[in-house]
Structures are given as C-alpha cells and as structure tokens.
User: What shape does this take?
Amino acid sequence: MIDFQPADPDFETRVRDSFDRQQVMRLLGARLGRVAPGLVEIELPFRPELTQQHHFFHAGITATIGDSAGGYAAFSLFPADSSVLTAEYKINLIAPADGDRLIATGRVIKPGRTLTVCTFEVSAEKDGRAKPCAIGQQTVMRLDGRPDTPVA
Amino acid sequence: MIDFQPADPDFETRVRDSFDRQQVMRLLGARLGRVAPGLVEIELPFRPELTQQHHFFHAGITATIGDSAGGYAAFSLFPADSSVLTAEYKINLIAPADGDRLIATGRVIKPGRTLTVCTFEVSAEKDGRAKPCAIGQQTVMRLDGRPDTPVA
Amino acid sequence: MIDFQPADPDFETRVRDSFDRQQVMRLLGARLGRVAPGLVEIELPFRPELTQQHHFFHAGITATIGDSAGGYAAFSLFPADSSVLTAEYKINLIAPADGDRLIATGRVIKPGRTLTVCTFEVSAEKDGRAKPCAIGQQTVMRLDGRPDTPVA
Amino acid sequence: MIDFQPADPDFETRVRDSFDRQQVMRLLGARLGRVAPGLVEIELPFRPELTQQHHFFHAGITATIGDSAGGYAAFSLFPADSSVLTAEYKINLIAPADGDRLIATGRVIKPGRTLTVCTFEVSAEKDGRAKPCAIGQQTVMRLDGRPDTPVA
Assistant: This one.
C-alpha cells in the first residue's frame, strides 16, 4: 500500500466529526474503526433489523458501509475546507454477509485534485473469523471551498 | 420496454411476501409500489435518520432501494421455487438525493436462466416534482430449487 | 430523451475531427454514424480479426466502441476548447456479439461542468435484425482549456 | 494472494491455446506473459495504431487486455471441458496509458461453480518504470460441458 501524506494534519478529527454527523450511521449502529491517511474502517454489529429475507446482512447495508469507508478514506487526504461526494461505485457481493459483525475497509488507490479512486472490501466476522463478503471500486469527488459542516 | 411473461402467475404475491420479510425495509420505512412483470417500484419517505451530513438521503440508502427494486424486478420473472441474489451492481449518483420521498424503479433488461441483467433509477420527489438522483446497472442471480421463504 | 443544447454550434465537426484522429478506430474499421447533441453512434463491420475464440466480436471490441460512443456523446455537449476523458465505465455483456455489424449508441444522461454521466448500448446486426449485446454506464470528465487537437 | 488449486493440471496449455485462437489479440499485437493458477498477465507493446487522439493507448485497448487477463485468470481454474465468458466488468482509468508497453494482470478473488469474481490492473511501462493506468473488477461465467475449442 502507498504511503499517503494527508493535506490536513487534523484529518482524523475531521473524519470522525463528519461520520458523527451522518444520522444514518447511528440508525444502523455503525462505528468508525481505524482512520489512517487513505485508509478508513467501519464496523457494524449484527442486528435483526439489518437483514434481508434469509437473516444475513442486507446487501444494501453491506454496500452502505463499504461506500462510506471508501469515501472517508478519500476524505482523509483532502484539505480542511473541502467536502466529499461519491460519484459512483461498483460492488460485487462475493459471499453471504453472514456474521456477528461486518468490517468495511476503504483504501485510496489514486488520489487526485478532482477525482479520487478507491477500493473497499467488506468482511463478515463469525465466531472470530473474518471472511470477505463484498469488494468494491469507487470514484469520489472533492468539492473545494465547501467545508463538510452543517449550514448555520 | 419489453413485455415480459412471468413464469409464476402469482408473482406479485411472491414479491410482496418476500419484501415484507426484509426487516431492513421496515427499519428504513420503505414500501413496495408497483409490481409488474420485470418492473418493480420502491418508495421511501424522508426521515432525518436516513441522511448524510448535508441532510440529504444517504447514498447508501439510495443504493439500497435501487438495488432492491432491480432485484425484485428480476424476481418477478422467476419460477415459484427459486430465490434471488444480487451478484453485483454499479451506481452513479447523478444529483443530491434531496426530497420528501425517494422512488426507485427497477427494470429487467435481459432475463436469463442463471443471470438476469437489470437497470434501476432512483428519483427524489420534492414539492411534487421528481428528479433523477441515481442510475444503476445490475446482475442478479437465480437460485433454483431454493424457495425464498424462511427455513422452518 | 432530454433535448440537449450544445455549447459549441460546430459540435458535429469537432466530434468527427476528433474521431478521425483516433488511429485505433481505423485499425478496427469503425465509422461514426449519427452525431446529435448528447447522442453519438459508432458502427463496426465484422472482420475475422476482431473476434474471440468463438468467432464472435471480442468483448473488448464491443466495449471499445461502446465507451467511445458514450465519450463522444458527452464531447458533443462540451465547449470548443475542451477535451474529453473517460474516468470509468461498467459494461454488461448480455448476449454474444454475433453479427455482420455492431452498432454502438452513446447517450448523455446527466451533463455536468466536470463530470458527465452517459449510458451506451451495443447491438449486433445479423441479416438486417439488430439485437442488443451489451449495455454500459459511464462517467466522462471534461478538461477545460485543453482543446482536443494534436500538440504541434 | 490466495493459493489456488487448478481443476485441470494442463491449465497453462489450455489458457495459451485459447489465447492463440483469439484473432483480436494478434491484431493488437498482445502476448501472454505469466500464467499461474488464478493469475494471468498480458503484455502489449506500443504501436501508433492503438492510440486515441493524444497518442496514448486507447482506453478500449487498455480495457480489452485487462478484461482478457481477468477472464484467463478465471479460466486457469476451470475444468478442462468448460469455457469462459465475461458477464460484466467495471474499469477506472486512473492515469493516461502513456508508455512503450502495457502490462495487464488479472487475478481471481473468488472462484465459484458458476460465477468467478476477478480484479485486474493495467500498468504502462515507460523507460523501464511501470505505472498503474487502470484497475477493474469483473464477473466471469463458467460454461460447463462446452470446451473452449473451435466447432469442427
């Protein structure tokens, strides 16, 4: 993995604050894990409310935390006064998301002034063993001069 | 649009029953709209709990109902004893999901014995006007001999 | 389809000139068809050199003209002094590309200052009947102040 | 990377024979590099005929060898009497394909009885240094009982 230099030394606080403002993460019960330059982890404990008809995590939930992990991985490298927007992503669901917990890891592959390309992987942890259940590839956009904070 | 012939005359009941078993749809507050052969609509009223940091619907939520609409569009054409699995999808978020309600429409483009290819579109309705906020393209898998019902 | 207003009245000449500079289109034997604001067609007659091991058009060739049709559809709406770059695309190969001719149609779905989102469809024509063999979804980037002409 | 066990001990011969039957690879001038269980490399020397309007490798060419590298990586794990079909892929073009040579590496991420998920990376080599220019994610289908050989 490439060693990225964040533009903003306070990147971790900025990522954690933004994550805390996403109400949907609270609804799902997702938590931020590791936040490093160009790498972010999101964890999501199992709850019956997050399941599809076979009682696995719903694919949409898997995708939601995968996309967010990638978006925040990109955001960790952005300057302080910018915000982040997912332009697009693609996800392959490679195994049932069957576990006590999902862990999504987003990684920057190619940072850019306008577009940043990321990949993400989501694993399902069951009885202490993690097994990949989804992989994704994503394009994230940087919006300069628009800090990621609520409008007063 | 192509005129599809469903393999199961009770396709609508089968789609509605399966949707009702998805607990995550209840958590989000999503409802099934139109169910036709090869076309399914899902509606989702706005709730603050579904938002990202700018108070629009979170991209993951948009994707969740888009993916589900496509999956159920495929499922509507399947035989009675089969179930459905999203193999992969790709989504472009083309405008902020800013509205009182999201409407996702999934459409079968190419049905197949094993793989069905669908597209989906999600629109955000605001003050009675709908504006597309996401488009997607999806591969859905049919699992034969595995009815979409809970294991006893 | 939306009625797009091209920023450059000479868009058709600009698209055709750029296409003519793509040596790979000559190698394949591809030709520009219709060029309208936000819609471009590319045609490719069958040649054994374009085939995979089963003597259908190779998926890479199908994708090449699909991607180009989408890129030029976007380019048709750009200002005169800009150039075009595919950021990413996704393609589903929905039937064998079996025919005397391929026809790719690219369409702009959402134009934007930086990013334009397109879809494309490729059909294989056999004995006068066209059958879709691929669909795609694409993100195209506009580079301003960099005309699409060779460096002197 | 996972250590894959090929179903067919003669996988390398089978991959090389199939590649040789793809006429389009000859037209482009592509050559097979490394062939290992679940990993295949394809190399493509620069030729002006393979370029877009800025004299870099055309994105379609980059995608063609990326897709083929992934497809053959999957095919290397298949039984002897099966053939391979790309169902879909997604590619991000992360840098101009500017170089004397392209090298595409396809890798199996998740093998399956019906569907195999792969990733691929394409690098452009210039003055002896390789730089990634594209990454992709792909779904490949296995067709059993249909050997990858020409119909007599």
In short: The interface with chain C takes residues 90, 92, 94-95, 109-110, 117, 119, 132, 135-137, 139 of chain B (CB under 8 Å). The mean pLDDT of chain B is 94. Chain B has one domain: 11-143. The beta strands of chain B are 31-36, 39-45, 83-93, 101-110, 115-126, 129-143.
